[in-house]
UniProtKB/TrEMBL annotation:
SUPFAM superfamilies: Jann2411-like. It comes from Micromonospora tarensis. Residues 175-195 are annotated as: Disordered. This is CGNR zinc finger domain-containing protein. Coiled coil: none annotated.
Amino acid sequence: MNFDAYARTGVDLVNARLDDLDDLRALFTEDHSWMSDEVVERDVAIFRRAQKRLRDVFEYGTSGRDAQAVTELNALLEAFPVQPRISGHDSSDWHMHVTSRGASVSAEYLAGAAWGLSVWLCEYGSARFGVCADERCGNVYLDTSSNCCRRFCSERCATRSHVAAHRARKRAAVGEQVTVAPQPTAGADSLSPVS
């Protein structure tokens, strides 16, 4: 089983827009394309609730609240239990599924996401769960950096944030120069020639 891929489905879910069934269908990548055809309207509410709970896991991890992250993941594992089974169409296509045959799309997807994030937490720690430092973004990510120093969900957000900080520093420096500019001394007007 590719636990990283399952963990990334959790990231994808938290970062997804889920206003309606079409948004939910857009969540499913080519690895999960079959889900797009089988998902139903009632799955939207289930995915929204799970999305909020998974965001909590990332926020707990980012803020160093490991016990709360573990508690929430354990609750998700209980709500969406993993029941592994081998699936495929012929002997060259065998692969693992995380739920029993006939499970709903939400049960299959969310069991995989909770399982993947749980394995990730056990392997790397909850400090590797991140929330983008760009205040305009809010996306979550898994920190795969070698020294656990990632702060942004993407290069785009990192660049945007660094440019905004640079511009703010530049504006502040210009503002300081204006406020410290020399002021005319008192009595300067009295230097005009007297007739």
